[in-house]
């Protein structure tokens, strides 16, 4: 498929200039309509992105320094941020983000390892690829609904565990377990996405290197460490960043369906907190402060990961 | 050597187990949808004895899934058509037309890609409410277009960058305006990319619940995914009917997946090899 094979990002293209037989600058003779054409082509995109993506970002940051309710529209300085970090629920949300960061390597290693096996032509590799990818196209609402049935306290999973003598676990009702259950379901639903990205990365790997390593008698861990990881450093970096962004911004559906933030607020993430404050508790300014914190958090996590991976890439 | 071969089969066995774990939850749900309430309570695992159309019919009519499905269909169709139109126009301009600020515009578009919806949702919904677009089809369509346009432009620009400039030049010599080049050359040439990106955009919009919850508060405007969350509350004691609703909501996506598996995977990976 050509989509994956195009060589470069955007290059300045000489359209509209090359048909100058005499070499004089074409620009001067181009009719006004033609000069405006690129902007007409871009106008809907520019307007929509500016008005509905970038402007709200500025508006939201600004909004987070104003008050809610009685103080609507008046400047309150950092009051919202002070309240935010005093709120135990928001602190839980931040602590859960910490868990996500810690679990991130696992969420990247699983699809990475599976892609390695598929790449090394484990028996049945074609079949695995399409089966693993399939939950990635399901909505978090559908995934969450299905796992609500499976993980109910008297549900099938606990029955199976009971059959092999393990005590039932209250997957969604125990405040120490629930966040890990939700993250686990998220990983179940999305590892296929990262797997496909890894496989695309493998396609760019020089097979001669692998063959050489194998004929030298390198073991699988050695091949992974010395051939695959350095060869795929950009892919790994990409998967790290996209998986983290996915964990921070696409678990709303799962939380909404599976736990509604409970039990005891233990499965809150910043995105769910923002939604509750904005939609349910009518605290849009406080929600905006949480949005700004989430944005900064993503910026920091993203940049830190890129920096970290760059450094480890150089050491190899 | 022998050990390596055994290792391969052990890995294959583990991967098959994982494949089963990937499929089983959906099979369990489909099976539960084919049972009566009584059968489900007695035994969750045994295969259903017959196809219970009545469960599906209940979910379809009394739970209002038909209405939700129609809403989703309207909104997703509208959003995807606009995304492909605006995305291909911008992608063409950014990849093949030289003008001042082209690079800056592309970077601005990339920056927008990294502004998640959760970060802008409060002011966005407020703005939408100010102009009377909340709880309307155009409002939700516009919200989806805004959400997925940067991604669509990024992929279309990448794709069009691989189209030789000579092709555009030749069409210009033949007397085409830029609009003519877009319509006669770029749209047909972009068809494979438009299909891939369109399928992926459609999945994103179809699967969304957060934007739909915020933009469509009234019951008659619920999209299918919001409908499923409501169904869960309505039929918490009647798992087979609830499972039927989940099944109805999953089937269109499964069909799209079976038809377009390759295209979805291609669109997902298109962004990754560049970064």
UniProtKB/TrEMBL annotation, chain B:
It holds the Pfam family BPD_transp_1. Keywords: Cell membrane, Membrane, Transmembrane, Transmembrane helix, Transport. The chain crosses the membrane at residues 68-92, 104-125, 137-156, 193-219, 239-260. InterPro entries: MetI-like (IPR000515), MetI-like_sf (IPR035906). It is a multi-pass membrane protein. It is found in: Cell membrane. Residues 69-260 form the ABC transmembrane type-1 domain. The keyword Cell membrane applies. It comes from the Bacteria. This is Carbohydrate ABC transporter permease. It comes from Luedemannella flava.
């Amino acid at each position: 498929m050509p989509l994956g094979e195009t060589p470069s990002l955007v290059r300045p293209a000489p359209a509209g200039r090359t048909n100058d037989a005499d070499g004089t600058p074409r620009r001067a003779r181009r009719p006004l309509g033609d000069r405006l054409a690129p902007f007409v082509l871009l106008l809907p995109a520019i307007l929509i992105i500016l008005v509905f993506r970038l402007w709200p970002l500025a508006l939201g940051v600004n909004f987070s320094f104003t008050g809610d309710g009685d103080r609507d529209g008046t400047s309150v300085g950092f009051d919202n941020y002070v309240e935010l970090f005093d709120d135990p629920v928001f602190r839980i949300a931040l602590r859960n983000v910490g868990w996500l960061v810690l679990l991130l390597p696992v969420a990247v290693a699983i699809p990475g390892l599976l892609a390695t096996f598929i790449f090394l032509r484990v028996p049945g590799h074609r079949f695995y690829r399409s089966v693993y990818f399939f939950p990635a196209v399901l909505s978090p609402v559908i995934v969450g609904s299905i796992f609500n049935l499976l993980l109910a306290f008297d549900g099938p999973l606990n029955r199976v565990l009971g059959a092999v003598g393990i005590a039932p676990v209250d997957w969604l009702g125990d405040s120490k377990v629930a966040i890990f259950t939700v993250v686990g379901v998220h990983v179940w639903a999305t590892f296929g996405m990262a797997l496909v990205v890894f496989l695309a990365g493998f396609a760019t790997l020089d097979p001669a290197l692998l063959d050489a390593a194998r004929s030298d008698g390198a073991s699988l861990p050695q091949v992974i460490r010395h051939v695959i990881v350095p060869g795929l450093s950009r892919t790994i970096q990409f998967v790290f960043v996209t998986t983290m962004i996915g964990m921070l911004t696409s678990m709303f559906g799962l939380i909404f369906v599976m736990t509604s933030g409970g039990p005891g607020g233990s499965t809150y993430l910043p995105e769910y907190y923002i939604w509750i404050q904005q939609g349910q508790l009518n605290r849009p300014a406080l929600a905006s402060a949480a949005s700004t914190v989430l944005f900064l958090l993503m910026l920091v996590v993203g940049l830190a990961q890129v920096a970290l991976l760059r450094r480890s890439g150089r050491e190899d | 050597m022998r050990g390596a071969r055994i290792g391969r089969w052990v890995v294959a066995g583990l991967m098959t187990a994982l494949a089963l774990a990937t499929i089983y939850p959906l099979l369990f749900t489909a099976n539960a949808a084919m049972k009566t309430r009584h059968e489900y309570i007695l035994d969750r695992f045994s295969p259903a004895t017959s196809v219970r159309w009545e469960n599906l019919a209940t979910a379809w009519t009394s739970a209002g899934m038909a209405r939700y499905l129609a809403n989703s269909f309207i909104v997703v169709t509208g959003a995807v058509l606009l995304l492909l139109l605006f995305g291909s126009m911008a992608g063409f301009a950014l990849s093949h037309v030289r003008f001042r600020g082209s690079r800056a515009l592309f970077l601005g578009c990339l920056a927008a890609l990294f502004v998640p919806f959760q970060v802008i949702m409060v002011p966005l919904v407020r703005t939408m409410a100010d102009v009377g677009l909340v709880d309307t089809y155009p409002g939700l369509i516009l919200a989806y277009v805004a959400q997925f346009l940067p991604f669509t432009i990024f992929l279309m620009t990448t794709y069009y960058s691989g189209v030789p400039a000579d092709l555009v030049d030749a069409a210009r010599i033949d007397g085409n305006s830029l609009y003519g080049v877009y319509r006669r050359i770029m749209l047909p040439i972009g068809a494979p990319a438009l299909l891939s990106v369109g399928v992926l955009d459609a999945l994103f919009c179809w699967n969304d619940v957060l934007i739909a919850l915020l933009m469509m508060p009234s019951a008659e405007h619920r999209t299918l995914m919001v409908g499923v969350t409501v169904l869960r509350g309505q039929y918490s004691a009647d798992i087979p009917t609830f499972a039927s609703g989940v099944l109805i909501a999953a089937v269109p996506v499964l069909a799209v997946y079976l038809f377009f598996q390759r295209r979805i995977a291609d669109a997902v990976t298109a962004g990754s090899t560049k970064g």
